[in-house]
Every structure is written in C-alpha cells, then in structure tokens.
Amino acid sequence: MASLRDIKRRTNSVQSTRQVTRTMEMVSTAKIRRAQSRIEHARPYALALASMLAKVTQASKKVKHPLLAVRKEQKVTVCVCIASDRGQAGAFNSNIIALTEAYLQEKEEQNVEVQLIACGKKLNAYFKQRGIEPALALEGFSGSPEYTDAKLIADRVIRQYSDAEIDEVVTIYNRFINVADQRPETSVLLPARNDEIVEQVEDAPKSRRDDLDYLFEPDAKDVLRSLLPTYVETLVYRALLESAVSEHAARRTAMKAATDNATEMIATLTRSYNRARQAAITTEISEIVGGAAALEG
Fold first, then answer.
1. How far is 148 from 163, CA to CA, in rounded Å?
2. Looking at the annotation, which residues are catalytic?
3. Averaged in consecutive runs of 10 residues, what is the pLDDT profile of the chain (297 residues)?
4. What DSSP string describes 122-135?
5. Which of 66, 79, 102, 226 is deepest in the core (most CB within 10 A)?
C-alpha cells in the first residue's frame, strides 16, 4: 500500500496537470470563437464563387481552360494534406495521417506518383521519420492561417496543372461540423470541374440554370482565366480555415476530457489518502491502548 507521502505527492502532481489542461481548454475555447467566425464568413463566399463558376462554365461550354481539363490517364498527382503544428488534440492529426497514407497506398497500387504538400509540423515530422520527403513542407500557421498561405499553395498547383506536370490535385483536411464533430475529408481541387460545382448546378432550380443568355466582357475565356485561379485559392483557404477551427475544437475536447479525468483521479486519490490516514490513526490508537493495558498489567 502506498504511503501517505506518496499519495499526497501524486495528488499534487495530478492537480498541477489539471490546472494546465484546464487552462489549455479555456484558451482553445476562446480560439474556437475567433476561428469559427472566420470560417462562417468564408463559407458563403466560397459557395457563391463556386455557384458563379458553375454558371459560367455551363454557359460557356465551348470555352477551354487548362484548369478545367480532365486528364484521361493519371501519372502524377498532388496531395495537399493539412494537419496541425501542435499536438494534444486527440485524434485530429492521426485521422489526417491515416487518410493520407490510405491515399498514398491507393495511388501506389495504381502506379501513380504522388507529390505531397504537407501543412503542419506533426505531419512533416511523421512522414520524414518514415523516409517520405514532402515536395513542399509548410509550418507555423495551422492555428491561424492567412490568405497568403493559401495563395502560396494554390499558385504552385495551378502552375503545375496548367503546364500539364500533374494530372490531379486533392486536399485532405478535417472539416468542421461542430465543436464535438470534426470529420476528415478528401476533396478534388483540380480539375476545377469538380463534384461540388456539378452538384450545385444540378441542385439549382431549372429556371436558374442556363436559361439566360450570358454576355462576357471582354470574353468568356478571360472571365474564366480570372475566376478559376481565385476559385482554387478560395478552396485552399477554406480548407485551411476548416482545419484551424477543427484543431481548436479537437484540442478543447481532448483537454476537457483530460481535466475531467484528472478531477476523477484526484477524488480517488483523496479517498485513498483519507483511508490510509484513518488506518494509520487507528493503528496508533491501538498501539497506545495496548501499551497502556500492558503497563496496567
């Protein structure tokens, strides 16, 4: 049985840990509000831009653009995977790692080369430890990404896809559903005629699809040339924002669970301490009574 000193030392240690986890939970809660506000403002813009692009591409079906080209055969793809720079966020990073490894395995079986763009220290460290060198390693902005970070990634993949160096670009990130639910998701970034755009066109009312005549100034090709890169940048930025708010939510959930476990452990240790202390007092009393009886005898 542990001594009173050992139990007291363990209790103090758990109390210190609980103070840290509770502080981290409060910090993550505050960061969630800011990050959630950013993604709530970005989502409508991204959806409106996708809807506009869907209408333009439907109205100008004969116009060709490098970012709309669908490769019949895939030889090289780019995987943009987004994780975090910090740990202590539960399964946040491991879910992205598992999904990325599954994608790499799938493409390896198809004899397709994959260029990895890894965002987040945890992701870079994991793959470098396993001998996988990312084509582009980015760190330092997972908790609060800026549009320039998204533009850096988008400019690279747009140039590669336009020059036919790659045949597909996908993004892997955690999508924020609510504070308790963040779902790892894989979506196609390029070619730009992806499922999200097609679904928006198909789901729109018939009167709003392509019943109108469109006039382009100077022409449809120039409109798409300006619109498509912005659309790709917006999708990357949205993925970074989704990942950021998911990271804070996952860390808050993990720290809350750690705080609750620490509180429960402190209660258990306190009961053990009280029982041990009571047993020690009882033993001392018994020794005193036994000694007094022996003296009287």
1. 22
2. 81
3. 78 86 83 81 76 69 74 88 85 89 90 90 88 88 87 91 89 85 86 59 46 62 79 88 87 86 88 82 77 71
4. HHHHHHHHTT---S
5. 79
